[in-house]
Amino acid sequence: MWLREELLKAIWHAFTALDVDHRGKVSKSQLKVLSYNLCTVMKIPHDPVSFEEHFKEDDKGPLSTEGYMPYLNKYILDKVQEDFDVLEFYRMCWTLCYNKNFHPQRLIISDNDAFKVWCIFNFLSEDRYPLVVVFEEVEYFLRKLTEAMGMGWCEEKFTDYMKQKKRKNWLTVWELMELVGVIYFSKDVDRHTLSMSINEVFSELILDILKQGYMMKKGHKRKNWTERWFVLRPTSLSYYVCEDLTEKKGDIILDQSCCVESLLDRDGKKCLFIIKCVDKSFEISASDKKKKQEWIQAIQTCIQLLRLGLLSPHREARLRRRELRQKQLMDEEDLAERMKNLQAANEAKQRQLEEMRMKMEEVQAKATLEELRRQKKQSDLHDRYRLDLEREKMVRQEMEEQMAAKSSELEQYLQRVRELEDMYHRLEEALEDERQAKQDEEAMRKLQARLLEEEAAKRAELEQIYLKQQKELSQTEAEKEELMAEQLAKEKELRAASEQLDRLERERQGALEQYQEVSRKLERAANKTKTWKDKVAKHEGLVRLIQPGDKGPQRITNWGPASFTDVELELRKKSWQEKKNQGAQAQ
């Protein structure tokens, strides 16, 4: 029997199509027409009076799905029988939502193929509204299509499509149609091949056709063999004249008592097997041994499912996939809850550490305050002792002055004075002993305080050593990485320096060659200049008048011996200076 959830999904599409304003409500008149059409398709007597009585209190406005659902369950779905054409029911619901949402000019699939994809979506979608299909079911559907077309499954292509959806892990029915008709099979796919693949998956998932094909069947009356097109469903094996399924010749009803057995070849027929039912048996001949084994195994699977009271294989597989997803979701929620508890425990630990730190700060503040009080008390005692000493010094000075003033007058009291001095010395000794005792007491107190400070310092030092060890461990890893980076940098610098040294060596060789070339040019220029100097000197020597010259040494210039002597040079300087002075006076 058709599951109520599958019928509700198709009706939900029809209800949503009637909701023009997208408010989740449909007018009462439209729901009345929808109910009439549903009853007509499902072969249920329609009672308009019950519809009016059920919604007599809802005359003010449109109805929501929550308001329509009780009537749908009570007066329609509870009365559904198995004798109605479910494809006609699906097509009626598809017709309502077809014109509103479907755009055939954008797709490479026909309207009929789109209807079949719509039915497959309802089969694979989750049992919650609005209806969506998760990516696991989309992958299952696409794998079925590619397998039917004889293509290999491309995991990367599907993964890229999922990444484009980012955090969205589900598709609506129109997005699934766009994926099949535009995105996924738009390139290098024949329309006819895609249509045949969609029809094959539709027959397998929606029509529960587990297997189909031509085989030979032996008649019960004439005992002749006739080729028939067999269609295996979970509860029956139907046979038709041909594969268009227009003329059915009969059904083999499968139940828990049926069995299928292989037969030996006889009467010129091969690959025989027999299906034994309660009232009769059917002998069938397959085309080859492989087909025979496949048909026997498929029929045995159907009988075994009937004995276990289970649904069709595809519905059982869908149920297992949903249970697995629910289990994964529960595991993820459990993991999230555990992570949340761990985070809460971590935060509690952090709070405890913070409280301990605050308590240590309070203890440290108290110790500091006690130290300040002790220092203040010690300072007060020191000031008091200092005042007592000053007061004693003043008293002693006054006594000495009085004794000095009366020494001349009170000679008779010298003995008494000596006694007083003895008494004074003894008093000083007593005071000194008392002062020494106080100093010893103060030294002991300081010693105790220093021991307390050293103990606190040792404790702090131990904590610092522990923190330092932790820090050194982290620094060791960082220093290791820095040393590796520094070694790589030094190797790079060494290579750069080696390349620079090679370049400098090449430049030095070039400079040396240039220097040699320039030296040769200078040598040629010097020889050429010397030749011209000789010519000039010869020319000037021929023009100059021969007269007695100075016997002094001949002047040497950069170009060789000069053409005149130093005396002649001085004369020329004086002549040039006189001409210059005369020109200045004339101006």
TrEMBL record:
GO terms for cellular component: cytoplasm; lamellipodium; nucleus; plasma membrane. It is found in: Cell membrane; Cell projection, Lamellipodium; Cytoplasm; Nucleus. Residues 332-535 form a coiled coil. Transmembrane segments: none annotated. Keywords: Cell membrane, Cell projection, Coiled coil, Cytoplasm, DNA-binding, Membrane, Nucleus, Phosphoprotein. InterPro entries: EF-hand-dom_pair, EF-hand_SWAP70_N, PH-like_dom_sf, PH_domain, PH_SWAP70. One of its GO terms (molecular function) is DNA binding. Residues 208-304 form the PH domain. It comes from the Eukaryota. Gene3D superfamilies: Pleckstrin-homology domain (PH domain)/Phosphotyrosine-binding domain (PTB) (2.30.29.30). The keyword Membrane applies. Phosphatidylinositol 3,4,5-trisphosphate-dependent guanine nucleotide exchange factor (GEF) which, independently of RAS, transduces signals from tyrosine kinase receptors to RAC. It also mediates signaling of membrane ruffling. Regulates the actin cytoskeleton as an effector or adapter protein in response to agonist stimulated phosphatidylinositol (3,4)-bisphosphate production and cell protrusion. PANTHER family: SWAP-70 RECOMBINASE, SWITCH-ASSOCIATED PROTEIN 70. The SWAP complex consists of NPM1, NCL, PARP1 and SWAP70. This is Switch-associated protein 70. The lineage of its organism: Eukaryota, Metazoa, Chordata, Craniata, Vertebrata.
